[in-house]
């Protein structure tokens, strides 16, 4: 099997090299496309796992400048760097560059998710999701989210001397998603869903070679299982709506999306769009939120002054509540310093390392040609760690975000930008603030491992961040 695969790659490589010779290289950015299909993909993924991806890209920038060509995930690619590049990516019209993820992501999630849609379709699907995810709608879910967080801490933290934070935060964020987004309670079904989901996301960033022994192949199979489970959920919610068993059309995300109608009285979203975007929300809510909360816990453990400031803010709110009383939307609005800590965490350790677009037509950028059909890749963490923008960028300083106007436009893009701003950022804010409130007011903790982390492709702290904990007061 290995020999056949090697011969196949050799023939494909020869074909692509000959094909490239027929293409004019006039004005193409500097750099090399490397070995066909593989290109620099394995080198980038290896650097991410070793947490040296930023250095790997910095070497490219030193060698070629802020624009260079390479090959990633089987496609010829142009890497862009800097504030100007961020603005270009987030403000360009769909007639110049468009959403298109690497083939591995596209095949695992699908072609009708917000990551792939453009123009009117992107606006239509995004607007549908914003009906559920906008602040006005999320206010009514604060109590339910807090209930899930309290239950989680009682089950997994109370009475423990040591816990491993990242896997527990993933359990928490998945249970919140199951409850609020899918109306699915804990049990065998949600357990099967999370197991399939974890296998699915393992191959999101991988070389798209669909052979039985590859990570990509395993993820494709898991994606099909998750897809079938989500389809069944959609079917059940549709029946509930039809039989008027749903008490509230906004009781969960799937019910909300199914209840939407366009001007002609037809479904606003197709079943395929609902299914694939629900899977996208699962990825965004499961990994990004759990990683953010985990790294906040990590930074607070190694930054005593920041911990003290967060504790003071949260204790003041706790003292204003009666015993057992839930937090309110107004309480969350008071957690300004805590959210600055979250923003600084996202600046230094963004859950999403980079992303891609596709050139819809030949584009002149920075004096070079980006050919039609080429992939455009950029890494947000590169701008967010630029010492010309953020003095002492490795220093953890939440007060960088005290005055939002002090951060230049398109230099902090952890939530995207422009029309590509993440629709779930407010959901993540609420989830994060409530979780940190209960952790700092009920527990103290101490790290049990070093401060290192790797990316695979999301950041993972050493050993999943084991911490020694001590309870301060009852929940």
Verbal overview:
Helices cover 52% and strands 11% of the residues. With 475 residues, it is an alpha+beta fold. The protein has one domain (24-471): Cytochrome p450. A 5-stranded mixed beta sheet has the order 1-2-8-5-3. Residues 1-24 have low confidence and may be disordered. Pfam families: p450.
Highest-level CATH class? Mainly Alpha
How many distinct beta strands?
A: 12
The overall pLDDT average reads: 85
What structural category do the secondary elements indicate?
A: alpha+beta
Helix content: 40-55%
Strand residue percentage: 5-15%
Summarize the structure.
The protein has 475 residues and is an alpha+beta fold.
Write the topology of this structure.
Layout: H1 2-21, H2 41-49, H3 53-64, E1 67-72, E2 75-80, H4 83-91, E3 97-99, H5 103-109, H6 119-133, H7 135-138, H8 142-156, E4 162-164, H9 165-181, H10 188-201, H11 215-242, H12 253-258, H13 271-302, H14 304-319, H15 329-333, H16 336-348, E5 354-359, E6 363-365, E7 368-370, E8 375-379, H17 380-384, H18 425-442, E9 443-447, E10 453-455, E11 459-461, E12 466-471
Parallel strand pairs: 2-8
Antiparallel strand pairs: 1-2, 3-5, 4-12, 5-8, 6-7, 9-12, 10-11
Structure characteristics:
18 helices; three-stranded antiparallel sheet; Cytochrome p450; globular; five-stranded mixed sheet; 52% helix; 475 residues; alpha+beta
């Amino acid at each position: 099997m290995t020999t056949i695969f090697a011969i196949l790659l050799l023939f494909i490589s020869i074909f692509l090299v000959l094909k490239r010779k027929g293409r004019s290289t006039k004005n193409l950015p500097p750099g090399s496309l490397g070995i066909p299909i593989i290109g620099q993909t394995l080198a980038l993924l290896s650097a991410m796992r070793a947490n040296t991806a930023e250095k790997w890209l910095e070497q490219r920038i030193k060698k070629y400048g802020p624009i260079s060509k390479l090959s990633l995930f089987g496609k010829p690619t142009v890497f862009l760097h800097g504030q100007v590049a961020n603005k270009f990516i987030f403000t360009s019209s769909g007639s110049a560059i468009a959403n298109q993820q690497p083939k591995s992501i596209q095949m695992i999630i699908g072609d009708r998710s917000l990551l792939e849609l453009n123009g009117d379709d992107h606006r239509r699907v995004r607007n549908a999701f914003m009906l559920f995810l906008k602040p006005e709608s999320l206010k009514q879910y604060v109590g339910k989210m807090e209930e899930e967080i309290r239950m989680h801490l009682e089950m997994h933290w109370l009475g423990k001397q040591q816990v491993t934070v990242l896997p527990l935060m993933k359990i928490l964020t998945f249970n919140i998603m199951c409850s609020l987004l899918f109306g699915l309670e804990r049990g065998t079904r949600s357990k099967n869903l999370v197991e399939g989901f974890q296998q699915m996301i393992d191959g999101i960033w991988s070389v798209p070679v669909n052979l039985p022994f590859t990570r990509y192949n395993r993820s494709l199979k898991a994606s099909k299982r998750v897809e079938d489970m989500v389809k069944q959920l959609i079917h059940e919610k549709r029946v509930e709506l039809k039989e008027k068993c749903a008490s509230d059309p906004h009781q969960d995300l799937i019910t909300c999306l199914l209840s939407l109608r366009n001007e002609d009285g037809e479904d606003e979203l197709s079943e395929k769009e609902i299914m694939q975007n629900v899977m996208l929300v699962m990825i965004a809510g499961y990994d990004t939120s759990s990683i953010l909360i985990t790294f906040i816990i990590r930074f607070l453990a190694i930054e005593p002054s920041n911990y003290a400031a967060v504790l003071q803010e949260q204790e003041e709110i706790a003292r204003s509540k009666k015993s057992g009383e839930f937090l309110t939307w107004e309480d969350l609005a008071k957690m300004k310093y805590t959210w600055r800590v979250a923003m600084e965490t996202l600046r230094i350790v963004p859950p999403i390392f980079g992303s891609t677009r596709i050139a819809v037509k030949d584009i002149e950028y920075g004096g070079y040609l980006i050919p039609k059909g080429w992939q455009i890749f950029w890494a947000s963490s590169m701008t967010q760690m630029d010492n010309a923008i953020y003095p002492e960028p490795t220093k953890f300083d939440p007060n960088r975000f005290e005055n939002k106007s002090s951060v230049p436009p398109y230099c902090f893009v952890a939530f995207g930008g422009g029309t590509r701003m993440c629709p779930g950022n407010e959901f993540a804010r609420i989830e994060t603030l409530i979780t940190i409130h209960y952790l700092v007011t009920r527990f103290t903790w101490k790290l049990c491992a070093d401060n290192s982390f790797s990316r695979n492709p999301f950041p993972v702290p050493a050993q999943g961040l084991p911490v020694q904990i001590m309870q301060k007061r009852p929940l």
